[in-house]
Amino acid sequence: MRRASRSSRGFTxxxxxxxxxxxxxLIALLLPAIQQARETARRTQCLNHLKQMALALHNYHDVxxxxxxxxxxxxxxxxxxxxxxxxxxxxxxxxxxNVFFQELxxxxxxxxxxxxxxxxxxxxxxxENFNVWGNTDIAQKPILWGEVGNAPTQVDLxxxxxxxxRSNMESTGKTSLSFRIDKDxxxxxxxxxxxxxxxxxxxxxAACAGSGLLFWQxxxxxxxxxxxxxxxxxxxxxNVAKENTTVVAPAIYQRSxxxxxxxxxxxxxxxxxxxxxxxxxxxxxxxxxxxLKLAGTQQRRGEQFSSDGWAWGGPATLCSTWFAPNRRENxxxxxxxxxxxxxxxxxxxxxxDVSENIDLRTWRxxxxxxxxxxVSDF
Length: 378
Fold this sequence. Notes:
Shape: globular
Structural class: alpha+beta
Helix content: 10-25%
């Protein structure tokens, strides 16, 4: 008996297209959820970095009875910002002057907490007779660290990076000016006769110096940000100042009630935080401009270039709450890579999100430790 043959039936073209369409829709629905889950994890990790640094600062305080200085400054210069009024400010060239054994520093607060974040080996590599650049220049002083590449400031420390933004200095396309040239900025001027080349040791967090203007900006002169020179504002550390709104010129003067937890040569005790440790910002995410997109041929202003480097005191590691966060207007104001928020650590050791739409008066009061004014819910 002959068996009846049955022909196997495959998918028709229409059925195949329908299956592909269903798969595409499922992918389209699931991909944002996966990306959101990953960002949530990165955001939580960033918050944990802030908590880790806040805990390290409290441990430092337990040992030394004060918080570390925002920047060690041993050299000041006199400037005349307006109306022939002289002002002493920290010398922005102190960290980068290419001389050794001159008792210069320019070192940031981040250097001081290294033993409290399980990085005592990096801390002990530091040559105290050298400034920051002296602890960076591996080409001239490799013998100090055993072999080329072991200069302490060129160590990438993961908890100093926001995982949403990057995992190392190079991953953002050379964004910095303290260490590396910004990808939109071409360096043509040598600094002290040489061109620094550093590719590691960046940072995405800055200590809060207060709620006033933090850096003097003189638009008539060549300016300096970290190691590099560029035409535009001259950015130099102040002990926290505030704009005098009673005159047309951008007058700057000192305001002790606007000072925060860290500033050049600071030695703040927790007992000095009279506005309440739960109402005072200790660390915030630092503004970066890698993702800043400008229309047409529009160029960034000088204040839209950010310094970078955990060891560098000044523009790289200090910030102010004078303007609202995430505005991408000025390197000295906080800014994060998380949508709608900036993350901060408070003086009580906690860390939390703050909306980028926070009331400006509340934001400024969060930056000061002893202003004496109430802080609204945030």
